[in-house]
Amino acid sequence: MTGEVPRPADRFDDVAEAAGRAFRLLPAAPQDLQPPRGTAAGSGTHRVTTNPDTVERDLIKLVLTLVELLRQLMERQALHRVDVGDLTEEQEERLGATLMILHERMVELCARYDLSMQDLNLDLGPLGTLLPPSE
């Protein structure tokens, strides 16, 4: 090893390449799908065509999806603690306000990147969707 620190441009190229590999695993919109060579357009195997111009938005979508998943898990845990009577009234109020603010920020971030909350719900094929249905 030479101990050489990679230049920022090299690191961005590495990140873009890694993001491209990651997004090839995500479900695609119908217009992004290309049939594999030698198969009919309606067959079951699909690949995503990545576009370097949308890498930032796609990465934001992935990050926001993970944050939304964690937010929903925290919300369910909070409801469980309220049901059990594990929290004081003041703690319940503070927790509720915090979760509402977090949800508002998620909606704002989605709007900034022209995403809807439903866009964050990845289709996992036979497993169903990543996030539970909105209530």
UniProtKB/TrEMBL annotation:
Record localization: Gas vesicle
Biological processes annotated in GO: gas vesicle organization
GO cellular component, one term: gas vesicle
Region described as Disordered: spans on this chain: 28-52
The organism's place on the tree of life at top rank: Bacteria
Chief site of localization: other
Name of a matching Pfam family: GvpK
Alphabetical UniProt keywords: Gas vesicle
Residue stretches spanning the membrane: none
Family membership noted in the UniProt record: Belongs to the gas vesicle GvpK family.
Protein name: Gas vesicle protein K
